[in-house]
Specification:
Layout lengths: L5 H9 L5 E5 L7 E16 L12 H5 L5 E2 L4 H9 L11 E2 L2 H9 L5 E4 L13 E5 L6 E9 L5 H13 L6 E2 L2
Parallel strand pairs: 3-4
Antiparallel strand pairs: 1-7, 2-5, 2-6, 2-7, 2-8
Length: 178
């Protein structure tokens, strides 16, 4: 098991260095088999004293205007956050995080706000208690997570069964991908 940025995972899959990966979709490579598993919503992550914490649901446009912190370029979550906040092409932010955990810490320190995948907020680490999490107002934002493997993999049957098993045991708060 390893965590990698999507482009590196795709390269490792193509080279046979990885058997399969859990990736945010879409993946548009005809040499790969893609089985959508579940839809993961994003939530607003805010410093505890931020004015947006008073809202039951946070409007995505308000979040985008409130000092949005992002991961550095190359992380798919950065692109997903920019897309969700209608900020395509943003290049000028001064503060960028290198990992999701760093991003969480930066929000907790009051350096800004961000979007986080719901599963990244499901833990009970001290860092998760030092920031406020709010659902996004409708229509919200989400991403689809899928299992991806090489079409020519000798493990294809096993990976198909793994995809079915994973889809049958969705994390709490997730719903099946279509």
């Amino acid at each position: 098991l390893r965590e990698e940025m999507t482009p590196h995972m795709l390269t490792h899959l193509a080279e046979g260095k990885l058997d399969a990966g859990l990736l945010a979709l879409p993946i548009l490579d005809p040499s790969l088999e893609v089985q959508p598993l579940f839809v993961e919503p994003f939530v607003a992550a805010l410093p505890l004293e931020h004015p947006l914490t008073k809202a039951k649901n946070v409007d995505i446009d308000a979040l985008a205007k409130a000092g949005l912190l992002l991961l550095e370029e190359g992380h798919c979550l950065r692109d997903q956050a920019l897309d969700a906040c209608h900020l395509e092409g943003l290049k000028s932010e001064e503060i960028r995080a290198t990992s999701l955990e760093t991003l969480r810490q930066m929000v907790a320190m009051g350096l800004g706000v961000t979007l986080m995948p719901a599963l990244a907020c499901a833990d009970s680490t001290p860092a998760s208690h030092s920031l406020a999490l709010r659902p996004l107002a409708k229509p919200g934002a989400s991403r689809t997570i899928g299992l991806v493997w090489r079409r020519r993999s000798p493990l294809a049957y096993t990976l198909e069964r793994l995809a079915v098993t994973l889809a049958d045991r969705l994390p709490q708060g997730m719903h099946a991908a279509k």
